[in-house]
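Progress note, project year one: complex with guanosine-5'-diphosphate.
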Amino acid sequence: MKTLRLALAGNPNAGKSTIFNALTGSHQHVGNWPGKTVEQKSGHFQYQDYTIEIVDLPGAYSLAAYSPEEVIARDYLINECPDAVITVLDASNLERNLYLAVQVLELGIPTVIALNMTDVAEARGLKIDDVVLSQTLQTPIIRTVAREKKGIDDLVQSVVTAAVNGAHYAFA
Ligand SMILES: Nc1nc2c(ncn2[C@@H]2O[C@H](COP(=O)(O)OP(=O)(O)O)[C@@H](O)[C@H]2O)c(=O)[nH]1
Ligand SMILES: [Mg+2]
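Model obtained:
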């Protein structure tokens, strides 16, 4: 049995915890980040012959460390070096969400983007060309509607591939 370590990053309310819950079910541990009052959620699940440990990072708009949440997210990604990151983007607020996404990519950690809330974006008539976005960012993008568990299986497959292959952002 091989172990992979993943992290979920994203702006507040992008859908991180919904994805975390869909993946880990009841296999969750909730505590506090060491020395902080910010909640720490970690959990695990099985995929093929992997045991996958995943951390639900606190919501952050950037890694610039303007808030305790941003410090925790940044320090975790830099110091704990997860095998891959799922960056969750709210497709209905794409521009604001891309700021963090690019900062995570610049760390050079293998990344898959979950383009979440695509139901909300579509209802607002927003059309996002995820092929162009994926080529521009040079990272896989999986469309999800986390609340309905849509796209979650594809997301897991993609992030495990990224973690195992160690694909790195070209510009890091
Ligand atoms: N319409 C819609 N709502 C979603 C989706 N994913 C999550 N939500 C809802 O958005 C809210 C914020 O999600 P949450 O997972 O707590 O976001 P977090 O702050 O990133 O952990 C919750 O009410 C979720 O049920 C989605 O794809 N579509
Ligand atoms: Mg959350």
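The chain has one domain: 2-165.
Helices lie at 16-24, 68-80, 94-106, 118-123, 130-137, 152-165.
No further modelling is planned for this target in the current period.
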